[in-house]
């Protein structure tokens, strides 16, 4: 927790895209002050599994942060915000288009208040272009960034992926941008505006599909298992094809349950040992010498048969047995791990990638751990904050407000939602 220990982040982000970024910054040691409206980040109450407790949606994305609630729709609340801007290194938000402008804080004003501050902003489509005014969620970004059109099979509908590439992927992009901007700030004394559009982030993660999009102008894609032809326009959905220069596929194994599959990459260098290993077991002892599969070109042409042969072998073994058999002969492969498999996996446990935590409202729960391992700054994962848990602490210890000032602000409604109007 040493790497960013002198960085203070004013974190106005909500839902997933922004909070994943600020959680990573917190795990690298930043002091992240989650600045929430009095009713809190909406995800605190979304998909609740324990009555009246912060949801896992919230707790899993907001660890190691301090929470303060401030009503930005009061003059006093806005003054607290300005005071925090003055002493923070980073301010970050992922509100809908125009929200911060409507609250009276465009980037130009924030920069004028604190020229050193770096501002991170996530939008569905950025602040310019014909889509700039649109809101976005994860699957909207997957739809518009090219991921969905290339996921699934040609005859079926487009599919979203389970990995949250639109939200968490964008959070990662933002973290990189913020760290670069801080480095420049340290040299120049000037902050800057760092913007990541979710659609842009998804396009970045679909880079190899753009490679294929351009290759289609020259001819068919020989490694694809689905039909392609020159001039077909869009990169097609190609099921579980590898997407790289090597052939790959997900193969069913014993005993045939929903996740009894293994992904196998038939790397060029491993065909011979692989054919020698599987051939005798499926009654084809001469497989390694069969000219139909002798070169990568032949294997691409006959890949349906390659998968059939490997599939026959795979059905005789479980995915864990296959992982051992194939790694033994250096074949890159991965059993399809369910969340249940992973939750009990020794490797995951050893790498602290599924971490048990305690929470005053919900008791024991788990978070996915820190995937970036810094040798001199290991993460120490701590539970997410309750709503407004640190309001007093931040006002007094960080902003140096005295008791009388805090009381006056509270009286003026700076930390609470306006009372609901009684129905006539
Ligand atoms: C995610 C999203 C669709 C949610 O939309 P939403 O629930 O309507 O929320 P918005 O961000 O548009 O608006 C937030 C409101 O809370 C208000 N608010 C936020 N913080 C506040 C505070 N501390 N005090 C008072 N009001 C506050 C804002 O002023 C705004 O009110 P307004 O509509 O009167 O301007 C939208 O925020 C968005 O498109 N964000 C950018 C893309 C993104 O990050 N999406 C992925 C989310 S995982």
Write the layout of secondary structure elements.
Blueprint: E1 8-11, H1 17-27, E2 31-36, H2 56-59, E3 65-69, H3 75-87, E4 90-93, H4 99-102, H5 107-113, E5 118-123, H6 138-144, H7 168-188, E6 193-197, H8 198-205, H9 207-215, E7 247-252, E8 261-266, H10 271-278, H11 296-301, H12 303-314, H13 319-328, E9 333-335, H14 339-343, H15 346-350, E10 354-357, E11 365-368, H16 391-398, H17 403-411
Parallel strand pairs: 1-2, 1-4, 2-3, 4-5, 5-6
Antiparallel strand pairs: 7-8, 8-9, 10-11
Helix pairs in contact: 1-7
The chain binds coenzyme A.
Q: List the ions, cofactors and other small molecules found in this model.
A: coenzyme A
List unreliable stretches of 5+ residues. none
Using only CA atoms, what is the Rg?
26 Å
> Oligomerization state of this entry?
single chain
Which word captures the global form?
elongated
Average per-residue pLDDT, rounded, comes to 97
Describe this entry's structure for a reader.
The protein has 424 residues and is α/β, with parallel strands linked by helices. Helix content is 35%, strand content 12%. It has 17 helices and 11 strands. The chain has helices spanning 17-27, 56-59, 75-87, 99-102, 107-113, 138-144, 168-188, 198-205, 207-215, 271-278, 296-301, 303-314, 319-328, 339-343, 346-350, 391-398, 403-411; strands at 8-11, 31-36, 65-69, 90-93, 118-123, 193-197, 247-252, 261-266, 333-335, 354-357, 365-368. Strands 3-2-1-4-5-6 form a 6-stranded parallel sheet, with helices on both faces. A 3-stranded antiparallel sheet has the order 7-8-9, covered by helices on one side. Strands 10-11 form a two-stranded antiparallel sheet. Strand 1 (8-11), helix 1 and strand 2 (31-36) form a beta-alpha-beta unit. Helix 1 (17-27) packs across helix 7 (168-188). The longest helix has 21 residues, at 168-188. It is elongated and about 85 Å long. The protein starts with 7 loop residues before the first strand and ends in a 13-residue tail after the last helix. The relative contact order is 0.14. Bound molecules: coenzyme A (COA).
């Amino acid at each position: 927790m040493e790497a960013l220990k002198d960085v203070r982040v004013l974190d106005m982000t909500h839902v997933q895209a922004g909070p994943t970024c600020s959680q990573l910054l917190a795990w690298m040691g930043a002091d992240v002050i989650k600045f929430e409206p009095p009713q809190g980040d909406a995800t605190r109450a979304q998909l609740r599994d324990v009555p009246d407790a912060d949801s896992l949606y919230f707790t899993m994305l907001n660890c190691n942060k301090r929470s303060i609630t401030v009503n930005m729709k009061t003059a006093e609340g806005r003054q607290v915000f300005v005071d925090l801007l003055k002493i923070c290194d980073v301010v970050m938000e992922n509100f809908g288009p125009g929200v911060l402008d409507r609250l009276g804080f465009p980037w130009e004003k924030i920069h004028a208040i604190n020229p050193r501050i770096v501002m991170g902003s996530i939008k569905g489509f950025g602040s310019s272009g014909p889509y700039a005014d649109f809101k976005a969620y994860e699957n909207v970004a997957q739809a518009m960034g090219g991921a969905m059109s290339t996921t699934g099979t040609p005859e079926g509908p487009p599919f979203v992926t389970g990995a949250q590439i639109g939200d968490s992927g964008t959070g990662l992009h933002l973290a990189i941008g913020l760290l670069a901007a801080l480095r420049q700030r340290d040299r120049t004394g000037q902050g800057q505006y760092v913007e990541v559009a979710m659609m842009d982030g998804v396009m970045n993660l679909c880079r190899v599909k753009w490679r294929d999009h351009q290759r289609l102008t020259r001819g068919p894609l020989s490694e694809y298992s689905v039909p392609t032809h020159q001039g077909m326009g869009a990169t097609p959905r190609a099921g579980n094809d590898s997407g790289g220069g090597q052939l790959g596929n997900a193969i069913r194994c014993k005993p045939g349950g929903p996740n009894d599959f293994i992904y196998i990459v038939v790397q060029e260098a491993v065909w011979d040992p692989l054919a020698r290993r599987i051939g005798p077991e499926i009654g084809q002892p001469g497989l390694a010498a069969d000219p139909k599969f002798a070169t990568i070109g032949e294997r691409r042409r006959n890949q349906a048969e390659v998968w059939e042969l490997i599939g026959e072998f795979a059905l005789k073994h479980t995915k864990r047995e296959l992982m051992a058999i194939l790694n033994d002969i250096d074949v890159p492969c991965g059993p399809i791990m369910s969340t249940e498999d992973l939750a009990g996996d020794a490797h995951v446990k050893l790498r602290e990638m599924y971490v048990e935590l305690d929470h005053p409202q919900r008791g024991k729960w788990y978070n996915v751990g820190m995937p970036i391992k810094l040798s001199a700054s290991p993460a120490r994962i701590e539970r997410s904050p309750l709503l407004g848990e640190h309001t007093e602490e931040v006002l007094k210890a960080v902003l140096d407000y005295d008791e009388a000032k805090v009381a006056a602000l509270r009286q003026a409604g700076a930390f609470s939602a306006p009372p609901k109007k009684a129905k006539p």
